[in-house]
UniProtKB/TrEMBL annotation:
This is Exonuclease domain-containing protein. InterPro entries: PDDEXK-like_dom_sf, PDDEXK_AddAB-type, Ribonucl_H, RNaseH-like_sf, RNaseH_sf. SUPFAM superfamilies: Ribonuclease H-like (SSF53098). Residues 5-191 form the Exonuclease domain. It comes from viral metagenome. CDD domains: DEDDh. GO terms for molecular function: 3'-5' exonuclease activity; nucleic acid binding.
């Protein structure tokens, strides 16, 4: 569990930023509502022992502190003006506290804290090169990489130490808590043992969820795979199981599901009208409000999925290109862990035969509400997955159809990004899943 000496740091701010664009001098305006109000830091030894602290309030010389932020951290403008100092003075002392030997800086949600730091440096004409050699680490990302879900600092602290940490949202208390959990995350090792399963198949459409960009959350995918491949050790309920339990509790709602499963839509308008009609029936079925939400979500997904699948041929037949069907189930081997092969499997919608003899992959999306007007991240990843499976194809053409409206987008294979970014995340997902089953057998 040992690591190099490190500094945990934390800002309290006047509010939140209004955008998510990368921080530059040109985009700094999005941080006008997110100004530094306090900066705290804590130095830890290489074995996680608290050695020293730094704590400073920053004067709000040219900005206001939102009431919502005051309610969280308790620093009013009057107090900050009375007890604080200008950012430049605080920054100089902070750099002295960090010193020449400590290059590892840790925060929970480090992207936020480093952006606040850099935005204030830009405003005060402080050279960003002064922090260029800092190694910023994020305990939130470290947790997400291992456990595939976010976690609040207080919850994580209690999971590790069994007690709450005091004065949450006090920047000094927050960075001390962050500094204490950091070495535990750094030293976490997974249990990987034989699980008696020769192969685990991940659907090509689920790859986006496995790497954190799909609509389905990663924990939901883990639950589905766990139930499929080790039902004897799975003790929970999948999201689908929970929805069916709610639906089966009411005879009238069971009939609504049967209606949804059998409905055949010719157009996007048809499916939207059916969604509204069945929603109305669910709302008057006598279910509890929370169960109504669950039932609606399941019915909507059933209708939308069936609409897309059943209208695939129609969209393909009206396309001007020469499209052919391909019933092959293509595969991509991700990794092998303790005798279990983790493999992606999927079937493509169509193959386009081009005049020059080349082939283009075709992915069809029948929209239920409107054309998106662009390729979503999860759709791009789905196309990249298929492109990696079909070695001889360089491009994927994604077609989106809404009623009589249609758009198409050409996506080029990006093997470098696949290899450097996607595959490591897929392998991490497989390790996480295998570790969970290893601990249950």
């Amino acid at each position: 569990m040992s690591c190099m000496q490190y500094i945990a740091f934390d800002f309290e701010t006047s509010g939140l930023p209004v955008g998510r664009r990368p921080l530059t001098p040109e985009t700094i305006g999005q941080y006008d509502t997110c100004r530094a109000v306090s900066l705290s830091a804590a130095r830890f030894s290489n074995r996680g022992r608290l050695m020293d602290t730094f704590d400073a309030i920053i004067q709000p010389l040219d900005f206001e502190i939102s009431q919502g932020s005051i309610d969280i951290h308790g620093i009013t403008k009057d107090r900050a003006m009375r007890d604080g100092r200008p950012f430049t003075e605080v920054f100089i002392d902070f750099m002295k506290f960090v010193g020449p030997r400590s290059r590892n800086l840790v925060a929970h949600n480090a992207q936020f804290d480093t952006s606040v730091l850099k935005s204030e440096m830009i405003r005060n004409n402080i050279d960003l090169n002064l922090i260029e050699d800092f190694n910023f680490r994020c305990t939130l990302n470290m947790y997400k990489e291992r456990f595939l879900k976010p976690i609040k600092l207080g919850v994580l602290y209690k999971e590790l130490f069994g007690v709450d940490f005091e004065n949450a949202h006090n920047s000094l208390a927050d960075c001390i808590a962050c500094g204490r959990v950091y070495p535990y995350l750094l030293g976490h090792e997974r249990t990987l043992k034989p699980i008696g399963v020769p192969k685990v198949i991940i659907g090509a459409s689920s790859v986006a969820s496995a790497v954190g960009v799909g609509f389905k959350r990663m924990p939901e995918l883990v639950e589905e795979l766990w139930k499929k491949y080790s039902p004897q050790t799975f003790e929970g309920q999948t999201k689908n199981d929970k929805a069916l339990e709610v639906i089966n509790s009411s005879e009238s709602v069971k009939k609504i599901l049967v209606d949804a499963e059998g409905f055949k839509s010719d157009t996007s308008t048809d499916v939207n009208q059916k969604v509204r009609a069945l929603y109305h029936q669910i709302e008057h079925s006598g279910l509890e409000p929370k169960d109504i939400v669950v039932a609606k979500d399941h019915i909507r997904k059933t209708l939308f999925t069936n609409h897309g699948t059943r209208n695939e041929d129609k969209t393909a037949d009206t396309d001007a290109a020469n499209l052919i069907e391909d019933d092959t189930f293509y595969t991509y081997d991700v990794c092998t862990i303790e005798g279990t092969l983790y493999q992606i499997v999927g079937r493509v919608d169509r193959i386009q035969l081009n005049e020059d003899g080349s082939r283009t992959l075709v992915e069809i999306k029948n929209r239920a509400n409107k054309l998106f007007g662009r390729v979503r991240d999860y759709e791009n990843l789905q196309c990249q997955t298929y492109l990696q499976m079909l070695k001889d194809i360089q491009y994927c053409r994604l077609i989106e159809q809404y009623n009589d409206e249609k758009k198409a987008y050409l996506i080029e294979k990006d093997t470098e990004k696949w290899t450097s970014e996607v595959v490591p995340k897929l392998q991490n997902f497989c390790e996480h899943f295998h570790s969970m089953l290893s601990e249950s057998v």
